[in-house]
């Protein structure tokens, strides 16, 4: 009887998720020059690479994933940012893991977008000629007298 109880207890412990618990993950996303990146997507994955949740960074590049339920002993963070020209990911994506317990501050080096330089290229997409450029050219030609408008 005692042996059967020990076997049942051992099986129950082995089949339970390893250290399943709740954790809070926080940090700051920056570009390669240390400038905070607002609007980046931060996704928390458990140790089996299953997605837990995704949040967006604020204007200061900060993120908080409060009370995340992770069913493994460790977790990892993926940072994703698209500036309408290119997509960027953090280099530590799936290469660095953290204990999935308590309150965890992810080091900036692990959330840095190494190939993004916001100072060199503004976060807005490059301006392409469109209606506003056409309107400006027309206004210039009207002012110079090169174009006349006929009224019906």
Describe the model.
This protein has 152 residues and is α+β, with helices and mostly antiparallel strands. It has a domain at 19-117: Immunoglobulins (Immunoglobulin-like, Sandwich), CATH 2.60.40.10. Helices cover 21% and strands 31% of the residues. The chain has three helices and eight strands, in the order H-E-E-E-E-E-E-E-E-H-H. The protein has helices spanning 2-15, 108-111, 131-144; strands at 21-28, 41-46, 51-56, 62-70, 74-82, 87-89, 98-99, 102-105. Strands 2, 3, 5, 6 and 7 form a five-stranded antiparallel β-sheet that branches. A three-stranded mixed β-sheet has the order 4-1-8, with no helix packed on it. A hairpin with a 4-residue loop joins strand 5 and strand 6 (87-89). The protein is elongated, with a radius of gyration of 26 Å. The N and C termini lie far apart (104 Å). Mean pLDDT is 77; it is low at 9-18 and 123-131.
Shape: elongated
CATH topology of the domain at 19-117: Immunoglobulin-like
The helix/strand class is alpha+beta
Helix percent band = 10-25%
Q: What is the class of the domain at 19-117 in the CATH system?
A: Mainly Beta
Task: Report the strand count.
Answer: 8
Mean pLDDT: 77
Number of helices: 3
CATH superfamily annotation of the domain at 19-117: Immunoglobulins
Please compute the radius of gyration using only Cα atoms: 26 Å
The N- and C-terminal alpha carbons lie at a distance of: 104 Å
Indicate the low-confidence ranges by residue numbers: 9-18, 123-131
How much of the sequence lies in strands comes to 25-35%
Q: Largest sheet at a glance?
A: 5 strands, antiparallel
Order of helices and strands: HEEEEEEEEHH
What is the level-2 CATH architecture name of the domain at 19-117? Answer: Sandwich
